[in-house]
Amino acid sequence: MADTALRPEMTHPVTASPAPRPARGRRRSPLAPYLFVAPAVVLFVVFMLIPLGYTIWSSLRAYRIEEGASVLGVRVDRFVGLDNYVAVLQDAELLASFGRLGIYGVIAVPLTLGLALLFALLLDVPAVRAKRFARTAIFIPYAVPGITAALLWGFMYLPSTSPFSYVTNALGWGPIPFLEAGGLFGSLANIAIWGGVGFNMIIIYTSLRGIPAEIYESARLDGASELQVALRIKVPLVVPALVLTGVFALIGTLQLYGEPNTLRPLTTEITQSWAPLMTIYRDAFLTDDLPSAAASSTILALGTVALSAIVLAVANRRRKEGVS
Amino acid sequence: MTALDTRPGSGSRPGGAEGDRRTARSGGTARPGAARASRSGKLLPTIVLLIGAFYCLVPVGWVFIASSKSPGELFTSFSFAPGTGLLGNLGDLFAYEGGQYGLWAANSLLYAGVGGVLSTLVSTMAGYALAKFAFRGRNLIFFMILAGVLIPGITLAIPQYILLSEIGLAGGPISVLLPIIISPFGIYLSRVFAQSAVPQEILEASRIDGAGEWRIFRHIVLPIMVPGMVTVFLLQFVGIWNNFLLPFVMLSDQADYPLTVGLYTLLSKGSGAPALYSLAITGAAVSIIPLTLLVLFLQRFWRLDLISGGLKG
Mind giving me the DSSP string for B224-250? Predict the structure, then answer.
């Protein structure tokens, strides 16, 4: 679903675990729970913890040429502390890619969530027609991989195949600059929005369906309009689902890679370092600069965790204030 | 990770609204008494929804029409005018490089199917243990899993590749299958589901009857957890099917590619050979069909209230 919103890399705002509920009675087999969690723990360590540790470790090291036996010196791999971080944070190219990611995210995330909320609220309005059709149609892009979505939209943008540019050409306005500097952010964000709205809509709608109808009934009896019911009652009640989908969308945004990469053959505007993850891929595999790639990866991952944590913390505080 | 004090299973609820939410409600039926209140205001919402539906269907409609165009027609006829090359395109697609498209489709199915099943099993066992047993280290494990949910999995693909190539496992299908089995979010969902769906009394009773823990899990817990497992499986299946960077980084042989990477290769080669554009478009159209059908068919079995926090705790 466009690399954005919801991929398997989904998340949930609920964090710290509650106090363990003491098992009643005597456990006869204290080994059992360990065996049940063992596969997950082993895989977690091998495929998440170790790669993470390895990334941090390599981000603190670098290849340096040192004087040695030969005239050219010897290439040694040694500890350089935070040098790589200092270097990548001063790298104008990488900073520019974070800037582009920021602009893209500011367009994609609010619009995805806003449209998802709007459609979910409309689906929940009694007596709206064609609900089933609309819900299914809006959900279909979820089944389209981000790469395929980028391919489809890429041709919808390309002046020679675009139906939109066909119309504007016919009107004498010339093609729409979807893939030019000005339109590119909107075009990329649109792919993410298209792929993400349906799933988020379903999450929010499911949350709406869980609210007892009696809550609205009394408001309606008091003369509240459908719009007032939606804004004053429904929206506050689905805030948790919104926070959740917001964090999903945020994490998806920061992992932007496939879509701009897919559009690259269609436009010269997208460079090899357009998005941070593209720069990281280039450093790791094309220019063989693993330490820089590791440092940038760590910054990206830390940034993601920090942003998600801020969103969750703000939501949590709001919620607590609401209670008191 | 700050603490949102939340009972697992109840999701995070807004303050003051701790009412008893009904989770089961027949979908689509209007609430009693609501119809009269909204007869006037139903036209605009319907129109807006239909615009949304149209927006979502346009690119899909386009790709099916475009797949009927011969390479010559693609760039010359109006976008939504059907062409005459559908059978030719399909023939070219399945003949490309000795039938590689069929291989890609089979690979996607293999990675998503096997990966999804293994991931669901691992998640279910872990989620059940975390929900229903008190053991030393439980909170630490759960906290790490939750932290794992927030880590962008894609940034791990490159170190995973480097480490797997150190031990000679990178390059083949196994390198795509192994890393996707661990799903922190799947474990989290399984825990939420086990917490609310598996009654402690049944476990206690079975233990008193002398059943072993594995037997209890196999014959009592697993059947109860099926709805949660279906949800985790579908999320994982679609996630793996749609994944691009991991197979892109890991695989070296084109014959091992899934559809996403295969279509990407077709498109990136296409700038040199426009005939490949037609193949990429036809390939995209064909690949959309099975997953859309699967998702639409299985939609009704999803317990997405697991995610949205509507599950009763």
Answer: HTHHHHHHHHHHHHHHHHH--HHHHHH
Residues of B in contact with A11 (CB under 8 A): 149-150, 185
Q: What are phi and psi of A276, to 5 degrees?
A: -55, -40
B100-308 has which fold?
MetI-like fold (1.10.3720)
Give domain status of residue A8, yes or no.
no
Q: How many domains does chain A have?
A: 1
- Rounded Cα distance, A239 and A268, in Å: 41
- pLDDT tier, B205 (very low <50, low <70, confident <90, very high otherwise): very high
Picking from B7, B156, B181, B222 by the largest number of A CB atoms within 10 A of its own CB, the best residue to mutate is: B156
Residue with the two structure tokens 């079995």? B301
Distance from CA of A145 to the nearest CA of B (A): 4
Name the residue facing A37 among B31, B126, B287 (closest C-beta). Answer: B126
Domain with residue A293: its CATH number is 1.10.3720.10
> Structure pTM?
0.83
pLDDT in tens, B47-90: 999 999 999 999 999 999 988 888 877 777 777 778 778 888 88
Query: Between residues A72 and B277, which one has the greater pLDDT?
Result: B277
